[in-house]
Automatic annotation (TrEMBL):
The keyword Nucleotide-binding does not apply. This is TetR family transcriptional regulator. Keywords: DNA-binding, Repressor, Transcription, Transcription regulation. PROSITE patterns: HTH_TETR_2 (PS50977). Gene3D superfamilies: Homeodomain-like (1.10.10.60), Tetracycline Repressor, domain 2 (1.10.357.10). Residues 12-72 form the HTH tetR-type domain. One of its GO terms (molecular function) is transcription cis-regulatory region binding.
Amino acid sequence: MAAAGATPRKQRLSAERVLEGAVALADEIGVEALTIRKLADALATRPMSIYHHVAGKEAILDGMIDLVFAEIDPPPVDLDWKPAIRQRCLSARAVLACHPWAAPLMESRTNPGPATLGHHDAVLGCLRRGGLSLEMTAHAYALIDSYVYGFALQEANLPATGGADMTEFAESIIERMPAKTYPHLAELTDDYVLQPGYDFRSEFEFGLDLILDALLAAANR
């Protein structure tokens, strides 16, 4: 037991701590601004110490994406493929909302880690267990993740998604959007976006259900 007033013991550096620190820092400042020096400062260490645990920036990005994939719930094996994939997609969107820098990088890494590979394999296994042909599995796999990542990217870049922020943003746009010139935009904004309870994020489930219903119909032809 440490004596009263003693200096707290410095947490030992490890590859896991480096990657977790990188994710936390990217959440704060964005992945473009992430540098080895800034990461070292955040971890209270020296830049060269980072290289004792990871090979460099690309290895850090690989590991960061693997940590993000590890946070996403895989499709539950005790559900039919459609509700299982739906649950997985809701988890993916929630995780990507917590890490808004991650969506553009999710499929960009050329050295995927075990969590990344395991997650993809679980999704494919869910679709195959559900009776989808190999061709339909490939179609579903591409379509579903294109939608999830695309929505996450759009959500991360919107100036507002709902509530008072959306009202303020929409009203500022209306000032430069005369209804006589842009009648359909004005109608959507006034009669839908500015109505109580609107939240852009709720559009995710609507679109997801359309995609899953269409895939189910196509698979049953």
